[in-house]
Amino acid sequence: MKINLMLLPLLLAATLMGCDNDTEQKAADAVHNANETMKDAAHEANEKMKDAADDVKEKAGDAADAVQGQVEKARLEREKQEAEDALKKAEELKK
Q1: What is the number of H-type helices and E-type strands within the chain?
Q2: What is the chain's pLDDT, residue by residue, as a tens digit (95 residues)?
Q3: What's this model's pTM, rounded to 2 decimal places?
């Protein structure tokens, strides 16, 4: 059976009813440890999400740069072709 970590402190607190002080202290320590574990897991997940978002931003920037480079290359190629066509027409008109 899988226990949701958020419900674990509640489950442990419910077991405290009718326990002696030593058992109650152990259960309280277990609840505290579970809370700390949840906090650490949440913090780690948050850091991983931030890292993943940074990676996505970086890759998106690289892709945008690559697309911009291709657009510039295509523009230069078109201008070159237009210049060649203009030269050919000029030569034909001279004949």
Answers
A1: 2, 0
A2: 455 666 666 666 666 565 566 777 888 888 889 889 999 999 999 999 999 999 999 999 999 999 999 999 999 999 999 999 999 988 888 87
A3: 0.51
